[in-house]
Amino acid sequence: MIVFDLKCDRNHVFEAWFRDNATFEAQCKGREIECPVCGETKVEKAPMAPNIALSNEAHRAGSDKALEDTATAAKFLSTCRKIREEVEKNSDYVGPQFAEEARRIHYGEADKRSIYGEASDRDARDLHEEGVPIATIPWVPRTDS
Fold first, then answer.
1. How far apart are CA 51 and CA 53, in angstroms?
2. Does 78 lie in the same domain as 22?
3. How large is the average pLDDT for residues 30-40?
4. Which residue in 12, 20, 43, 124 has its CB near the most CB atoms, within 10 A?
């Protein structure tokens, strides 16, 4: 196994493990490597710090931890994308008018329905203080974008 520091087109740096350099090159060319932060598939090797030799036991523990961390990040992103799909499928997009529309629904001035959109931190805080039920969710990019 070999580990590379990679950098996506949006300059997020992350670590990934490969069987060998040829495997990395093939997956990179096929755009099969995805940035765990933004989902970008255009990646390249980033500068790496030198690797310090560890005992076999320490090396195995580090490898297992890195693989576990990568799997956890991938699962988190997958869950966030599923949440996004459900929200988009079952809610009306109101864009930057989210705070205004949420208030109108809460106070009975508009039909009750699920909505999503953008709100500033200040607007979200104000809505919460008014008792308007809202939630902030991580909005990760689609994998097909």
1. 6
2. yes
3. 89
4. 43
CB-based contacts of 40, cutoff 8 Å, min separation 6: 8, 9, 10, 12, 34, 141
Domain extent, residue 12, equals 2-85
The span from the CA of 94 to the CA of 97, in Å, is 6
* pLDDT score, position 54: 57
Residue 23 above 80 pLDDT? yes
- C-alpha distance from residue 6 to each of 11, 35, 110 (Å): 9, 9, 48
* 47 and 115 both lie in a single domain: no
Same domain, 78 and 95: no
Overall domain count for the chain: 2
Give the phi and the psi of residue 93 in degrees, each rounded to 5.
-80, 125
Length of the chain: 145
